[in-house]
Please model this.
Amino acid sequence: MRRSLAVAVVALAGAALVACGSEPLESHPPIFAEAPWTGPERLHYNLLERDDLEGTCVLETAPEIEPGVTEVRRLCQDAEEGRYRDNGRARVDSTTLRPLSSLRVVLDLVEGSSRQFATTYLPAEGIVRFESKQFDGDAEEPSDSLEAQRDLPEASANLPEPGWYDDEELLWLVRGIPLREGFEGSFTNVNASTGRVFGADVAVEAREEVEVPAGTFQTWKIRIETSTVTQFIWVDQEAPHRLVRARIERLTYELTAIE
Model:
């Protein structure tokens, strides 16, 4: 079982913050139209590599944890021994889904070690700050710590609110884009695990019927593409447009239960 269960939605998950590597920034208009969820959610998934069960995930939506702020959470663990955890959360603006902060924690419960990747957004300064820490055993102080900061896309008179989104929220972002066949857009993705800021393209490709353990759904098939990788996500055509399946790197999420 690999240490990182749930890979990032667009960027390749990294073991440590890289020193450089962001692409030239291009400003894009926001692609998030509106939040389809109307209250708290817990959605359960199997994580598959081909037909093998690798782990399980729960995606939680917690609207209005404080005025104007929603928290989205990804809670994953391996299927066999329960040794590894890969948990992420992002605090976002409830209306626009613009991120405020995020945290990803990768845990080895046998060794007692963890790696933390945090982002803090400072749009007034036009930057995002990254911090990565390694903790070993019961140590209170990190054995390794890295920091970096990157520029965010610049606003302009024609584009006063450019669209950027955190990697930890992308499984929610696709639920709130204009879900119609032929929709295409672009956005800036921010990934704490790699310390990268880069462009991504999104397109609603087609309607597809998808069968998963939770049932059979009529879905929209969505493609997210960067310069290095292409991912596919299927969301229910019916509101609140729940994530039904996602093919992310080597893993496939399949919906098993809805709370």
